[in-house]
């Protein structure tokens, strides 16, 4: 029998709290998908803002990116953001994890393989890095990042001839790369080819006048060749251009020791105490020998 408007229901199905709860469920069912979409869109827009550098919030950025990566584990762009974020913070292990996830999503992308190779170099996994760089080159023989990364990996292993070959191949692809010229100069210097190394450093400096590394590396090449006065001039120029370049002060101290000036070497030690106590101790030990 259908009850009329004055009839009581046969059974009270819900109490008041249950009615409120069920009303909420109905509303959630009605608006839930839209609210979820709007929330996701807001998060992604916010991530875009902070990843673009418009908002400086490194900790929040990492938290959001990790959360999105866990939710959308098939989104390669998220792991690309994570890689950049962790690299900036110097968190090498997390950079490796982000790159490994990225490779799983894009295994045939040579640039992604090269990114993982670079991350492996940073944590000392040189053989793994070489595998990645070679895989990238097999996917794209003209992958600049892979050839340059392979050159740096060979440098880490002391294979200077192979390092020179890889850096020269990178320069064939991008002849105006200051980074490739710097790496080539280091490989040449390590091989004892000092004149060629200094030419590479000079070209790097011409391409990017603001970088200090060519002066430091040129000075080291001079120092290895026993040309101490020229090395001192290079290191002096480097510290004038960058008053916080610890390696320049350290090598300047070494050069002063080579010419027998312990007082000036100790002066570099005092400066290094504020910049890099580890290098300061190493230089002080050389002075005391």
Give your account of this protein's structure.
- Mean pLDDT is 77; it is low at 1-31, 54-58 and 63-74.
- The protein has a domain at 212-289: Tetratricopeptide repeat domain (Serine Threonine Protein Phosphatase 5, Tetratricopeptide repeat, Alpha Horseshoe), CATH 1.25.40.10.
- It has helices at residues 16-51, 58-71, 76-89, 92-105, 110-122, 126-139, 144-156, 160-173, 178-190, 194-207, 213-224, 228-241, 246-258, 262-275, 277-288.
- The protein is mainly alpha-helical and 289 residues long.
- α13 runs parallel beside α15.
- It is globular.
Quick structural gist:
The protein is mostly helical and 289 residues long. It contains 15 helices and no strands. It is globular, with a radius of gyration of 29 Å.
List keywords for this structure.
0% strand, mainly alpha, 289 residues, Serine Threonine Protein Phosphatase 5, Tetratricopeptide repeat, single chain, 78% helix, disordered N terminus
Q: Indicate the multimeric state.
A: single chain
CATH superfamily of the domain at 212-289: Tetratricopeptide repeat domain
- Strands, count: 0
Distance between the amino and carboxyl termini: 108 Å
Summing up helix and strand content along with how strands pair, one would put the structural category as mainly alpha
Mind summarizing the main beta sheet? none
**What is the CATH class of the domain at 212-289?**
Mainly Alpha
Mean pLDDT: 77
Provide the CATH topology of the domain at 212-289: Serine Threonine Protein Phosphatase 5, Tetratricopeptide repeat
Encode the helix/strand succession as letters. HHHHHHHHHHHHHHH
Number of helices: 15
How big is the Rg?
29 Å
Strand content: under 5%
Shape: globular
Low-confidence stretches: 1-31, 54-58, 63-74
């Amino acid at each position: 029998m259908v009850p009329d408007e004055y009839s009581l229901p046969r059974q009270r199905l819900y109490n008041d709290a249950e009615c409120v709860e069920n009303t909420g469920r109905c509303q959630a069912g009605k608006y839930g998908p839209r609210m979820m979409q709007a929330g996701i869109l807001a998060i992604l827009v916010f991530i875009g803002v902070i990843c673009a550098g418009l908002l400086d919030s490194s900790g929040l950025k990492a938290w959001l990116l990790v959360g999105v990566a866990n939710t959308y584990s098939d989104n390669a762009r998220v792991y690309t953001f994570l890689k950049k974020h962790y690299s900036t913070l110097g968190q090498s292990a997390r950079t490796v994890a982000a790159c490994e996830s990225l490779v799983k999503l894009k295994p045939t992308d040579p640039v992604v393989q090269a990114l993982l190779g670079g991350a492996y170099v940073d944590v000392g996994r040189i053989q793994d890095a070489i595998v990645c760089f070679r895989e990238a080159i097999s996917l794209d023989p003209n992958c600049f990042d892979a050839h340059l990364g392979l050159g740096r990996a060979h440098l880490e292993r002391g294979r200077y001839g192979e390092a020179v070959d890889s850096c020269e191949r990178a320069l064939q692809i991008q002849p105006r790369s200051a980074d490739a010229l710097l790496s080539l100069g280091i490989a040449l210097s390590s091989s004892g080819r000092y004149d060629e190394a200094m030419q590479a450093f000079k070209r790097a400096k011409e391409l990017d006048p603001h970088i200090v590394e060519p002066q430091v590396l040129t000075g080291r090449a001079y120092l290895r060749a026993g040309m101490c006065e020229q090395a001192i001039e290079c290191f002096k120029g480097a510290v004038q251009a960058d008053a916080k370049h610890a390696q320049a002060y350290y090598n300047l101290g070494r050069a002063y020791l080579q010419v027998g000036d312990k007082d000036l070497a100790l002066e570099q030690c005092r400066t290094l105490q504020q910049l890099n106590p580890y290098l300061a101790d190493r230089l002080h030990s050389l002075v005391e020998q």
